[in-house]
């Protein structure tokens, strides 16, 4: 254990797990360090909306289990941040909205309870876009989280898992739960220079999570490395789910599909260059990179996904918004109310199934598709156009039921992180995570090495 990290500051989740198992760190020290950094930095970052009052006592219980040889597994004693769409026993679930009462939840949601049973310790709830409806991270009843990569200008964190991404990027928590309906894990991961993973639908139950679009909603994870995300995802699967699909022997070449130039017309030249450079590194590592031709433009899938999600969001939240419109933010309120004029649900579902079958056919020649996570790096909050959400490269995965993951690959000239996204066939989650771990090494991004500087944010 490095003496310069007495509380585990700057360590990845996998490094923390090793240090705890070998006795170089205590859970109490790790949790105390996280809480100290939250108290120091979060008044500026705005990533947390509520803190748990039992985190230190639970850490002490974890340390006692380890001393007795009764540790629950590799995650025992490791801190966790939770997006405020998930119920956590004893904490309110506001969902970024003034419309929800501050009543403590009587029980934890399924994903949180599963990780608590594995010994993880909830630090608190993180900020979210109201009801999970937004890709910039700007529409919430709580203050907008600040992207930690720019101390001088308030830049967007990405949404809707905004606080979770900021907390992990700034070193306030080693891992965080998020949810992904159209990119809500991957977009903030891309903007904040971390890993964001959206699994295949149905693998992790959503019980106790505020719904937005049941057709698209998926529990996701935000971490510092793919390995960190894989460890926690495996623990979630051990609660009852399985990830099947194809297997992959590390080192074997994969068939990677890149996008046609026409698909990149909304992407800045700078991001296009970083994207192509990353693909060149994957080709140099021995993978076969070839042009993927989607049956439809990704922006078409994005639009269709938006229509379906808004229709479902209206059926869930529309009555409450119409009864008390003053309690909801105007942007989210108007978005959801627009869902009442969409085509019949069964028509959209049938169309979606047709698109899924056609896309499955197009993917037969590829193992994964590689594409930019976002068209540009994070912009200033003051420059956000709420009518143009940054979901063109993310919604398609929800619409087509694909697992997808974003990793950091570089920086813009303004010093903001750039993400590269991989998508695989449904339930090829295990293969995707294995490949993404290898891709991290092959691309060798400068982002993780500079993330340590985010542990101290200028006020």
Automatic annotation (TrEMBL):
Gene3D superfamilies: Amidase signature (AS) domain. Residues 30-433 form the Amidase domain. It comes from the Bacteria. Pfam families: Amidase. Keywords: Plasmid. The keyword Endoplasmic reticulum does not apply. This is Amidase. It comes from Azospirillum oryzae. The lineage of its organism: Bacteria, Pseudomonadati, Pseudomonadota, Alphaproteobacteria, Rhodospirillales.
């Amino acid at each position: 254990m490095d003496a310069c990290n007495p509380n585990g500051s700057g360590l990845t989740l996998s490094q923390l797990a090793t240090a705890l198992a070998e006795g170089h760190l205590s859970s109490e020290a790790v949790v105390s360090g996280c809480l100290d950094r939250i108290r120091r930095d979060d008044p500026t970052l705005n990533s947390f909306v509520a803190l748990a009052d039992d985190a230190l006592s639970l850490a002490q219980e974890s340390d006692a289990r380890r001393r007795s040889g009764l540790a629950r597994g590799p995650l025992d004693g490791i801190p966790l941040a939770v997006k405020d769409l998930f119920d956590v026993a004893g904490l309110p679930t506001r969902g970024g909205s003034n419309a929800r009462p501050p009543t403590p939840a009587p029980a934890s949601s399924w994903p949180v309870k599963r990780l608590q049973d594995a010994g993880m310790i909830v630090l608190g709830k993180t900020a979210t876009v109201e009801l999970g409806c937004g890709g910039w991270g700007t529409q919430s009843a709580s203050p907008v989280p600040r992207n930690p990569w720019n101390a001088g200008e308030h830049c967007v964190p990405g949404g809707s898992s905004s606080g979770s991404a900021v907390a992990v990027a700034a070193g306030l928590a080693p891992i965080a739960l998020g949810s992904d309906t159209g990119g809500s894990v991957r977009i903030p991961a891309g903007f904040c220079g971390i890993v964001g993973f959206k699994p295949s639908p149905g693998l992790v139950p959503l019980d106790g999570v505020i719904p937005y679009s049941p057709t698209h909603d998926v529990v996701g994870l935000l971490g510092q490395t793919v390995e960190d995300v894989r460890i926690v995802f495996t623990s979630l699967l051990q609660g009852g789910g399985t990830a099947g699909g194809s297997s992959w022997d590390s080192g074997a070449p994969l068939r990677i599909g890149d996008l046609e130039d026409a698909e990149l017309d909304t992407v800045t030249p700078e991001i296009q260059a970083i994207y192509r450079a990353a693909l060149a590194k994957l080709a140099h590592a021995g993978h076969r990179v070839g042009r993927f031709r989607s049956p439809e433009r990704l922006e078409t899938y994005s639009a269709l996904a938006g229509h379906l999600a808004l229709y479902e969001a209206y059926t869930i939240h529309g009555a409450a918004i119409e009864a008390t419109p003053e309690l909801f933010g105007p942007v989210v309120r108007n978005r959801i109310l627009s869902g009442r004029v969409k085509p019949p649900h069964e028509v959209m579902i049938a169309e979606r199934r047709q698109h899924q079958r056609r896309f499955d056919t197009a993917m037969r020649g590829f193992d994964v598709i590689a594409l930019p996570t976002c068209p540009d790096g994070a912009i200033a909050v003051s420059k956000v156009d709420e009518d143009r959400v940054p979901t063109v490269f993310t919604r398609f995965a929800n619409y087509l039921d694909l697992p997808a993951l974003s990793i950091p690959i570089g920086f813009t000239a303004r010093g903001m992180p750039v993400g590269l996204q991989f998508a695989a066939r449904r339930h090829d989650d295990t293969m995707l995570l294995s490949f993404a771990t290898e891709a991290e090494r092959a691309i060798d991004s400068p982002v993780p090495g500079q993330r340590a500087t985010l542990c101290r944010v200028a006020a």
